[in-house]
Amino acid sequence: MTEDQAHYPPVEPIQAGIKGRCPRCGEGKLFAGYLKVKDRCGVCGLDYSFADAGDGPAIFVMLIVGFVVVGLALWMEVNYAPPIWLHMVLWIPLTLVLCLTALKLIKGVLITLQYANKAAEGKIEERP
Length: 128
Known about the structure:
Blueprint: H1 13-19, H2 56-80, H3 84-116
Helix pairs in contact: 1-3, 2-3
């Protein structure tokens, strides 16, 4: 039997992750700080020790934000040919804002999806 024996209404994992809420009850906060995951849910008591997103959120953020920013910078260079200082003034702050915003959202989504799909660390079976 699993430790999750209480009956909670189904929680949409992507919505809960974006809002930074508990993957079981959808009410308690998932994060203690900006990116630090709490020890447990303050509402339903779910132990968040299973939550290990690893480097997944950073990879997704780099790929998504990099695609958007580089695409916009290339489009602007081809169409308007602005000086390099203007590129730096536009794209560096935009990259920072998008990365910091997306990192928390994606980390929350990956953790709630990890709970919803009962994902766990892979283990090698011992043969007799």
